[in-house]
User: Fold BTB domain-containing protein from Dactylellina haptotyla.
Amino acid sequence: METESAGDPNAAACLYLDDAFSVCWRRRLRIAYTAPSVAECVCTVGGVPDPQIDPAVPACTSYLSSIGQKRRISAFYSSFNGYCSSYGRAQALTSTDSAGTTTETKSLGGARLGRENCEEILGIYNVCQRSPQDLITEPEVASCICHDRNGTFNTAFDDILSPCYSWATSSETEFATEVSRLFGFCTRFGTFSFDAQTPITTSVPGVRTTKAIPTLTFSQVAQDPAAEACEKFAKIANACRTGPLDPLTRVGVANCICVDPGDPTGGFGTAFDNLLMSCIPYAKTKSPAAGSQIESLTGYCIRYADGGKTYTVNGMPEVEINIMKPDVLACILDFIYTGDFDETGKKQYIRSTHQPRDGEDYTLFPSEPSGEHIRRLVSIYNMARKCNLEKMAALAKERLTESCEATFGPGLHHLTNFLLQDWDYPTDSCSDVANCGKRMEELTRYRYQILDIQAEKLQADLSRDVIQDRFDGLVRSLNKTKRCANSGCQASFYVFADEEEVGFTSGPIIRCRVCNSRQPF
Assistant:
C-alpha cells in the first residue's frame, strides 16, 4: 500500500503493516494471510509479541478514509482488525507444538511455570548437542532445536523463552540476561547460524543439567543495518522453505524468495539479493563458515529463480542468465524425455545437479573451440551406446558426419568412422592413443550417473498415471464450478490449485483466488 503523507502517524501505521506483511506473507497465491506461519511472523519481533500490529489497523483505516480510499476500508478493516489477537501467538499457544528432536512431547499451553520452561530450554539444548562443547548457535544444534521430527521448521522453542525469562529475572538475573539474548532464536538461527563468541556456564537452582548458554551481542542488532539485513534475510528464507531438507536452490523456493511484493504481476526483484550482500560482512564477523555459505548464494535470484529464465526488475531491461553449454548428461536426459537433444549450445540447458564422486573435478570437453562441437557429439554417441540408446546413437552419428564434412570438408568419412570407434578398443590408426584413453576414462566416470537417470525415468513412468488422475480431477472441478462457493464472495470463477495441497491419494484442493476459500470437489 502506498502513502502520500510521510508525517502522518496514521500513514506511518499503514507503512508499518505493509512492511510486516510484505516480509511475512510472500506466497500470497498459495498461503492465506491467516495461516499460523504468517501470523507468527507478522505478530512477533525478536521472538516476543509485537504490540504495534493491532493498533496500527484502525489507524491505517483512518488514513485510507482521509485519502478517499472508501472502497478499500471495509475489506481492509474486516480482514485485519484484531489480527494478532485472533491469529497470533496468544491463539497459537493454546495448541500443542514440538521443538527440535528432543523429549517425547512439549506442550506449550496451560499454566506452565517459568522455572519448568528454563529446565526445558536446557533440556532441549542438551539433547541437540553432539558434544558438551557445542554452542547453542552452531548450525547443527540450531537446526535440531528449530525443526520437529518431520523436518518442519517451527518457532516453538522461542515460545518458552519469554516465560523462562520472566521467572529468571527475579531469581537468576544472569541467566535471565542470557535467555533474553536468545529471543527470536529460531527466526535468527534456524537456517543460517552464527557461532557465539563467549560461552558462559550458567546453572538454574534445582535443575539437574548445567549447560553453556552463549553470550550473543544482540544489543547492537537494532543499530546495525547489516545485522538487520541478516535477520530479514533468514526470515524470508525460512518462510519459503518447507523444511531443513528443502534446498534454497530449488526453483519453487527461489520463486517464493525472489518475488517482488511491489510488482502486481508477481515478477521477480532484487530485494533479497540486496539483503544478502548487506548480510555477508556481518555474517563473516560472527562465523566465517556461515559467512562463506551465505556468500556462495551471491546473485541468488538471477541464478535460481524461475529455473534460470529471464525476468524484469522494476522496469529495467531483461537480465539474461548465462546458461552453461550442454554436457553429455543433459543431452541424454533431454533425449530420454523428448526424443531429441541439442548439442550446439543454442538450447538453454540448466546446469546439472550431479556432483563428481570423491571430490573429483573435471571437464568432459577441452576448451579449444574448433573441435568442441565434434568432441561433444563423439561423447554423446559413445555414452548413448553404453546406455543402449540406439536411436540416440544413430542420431548422434548422423549429426557427427554432417559436422565433420562441414568442418573438415567433404569426403572425410574415414575421420567419422575413426571417431566413432569403441574407445575400449582403440586401433593402431589412432593418431593420439593417449587422448582416446583419457576420453574413455572420462566417460566411464559417468556410468553411475546414468543409473540415476534411469531411476529418475522409471519414477517418472510410475508417476504418470497419478499425475493424470490429478489433472482429470482438476478438470472435473473446473467444469462443475461456476462461481465461488463462499456465500460472502460469489466471485466469478477464477481458481487455482496449490501444488502443496495436491496429494497422491486424493484429488487436488481447489481454492478461490479472490477469497482463498476451498471449493467443493
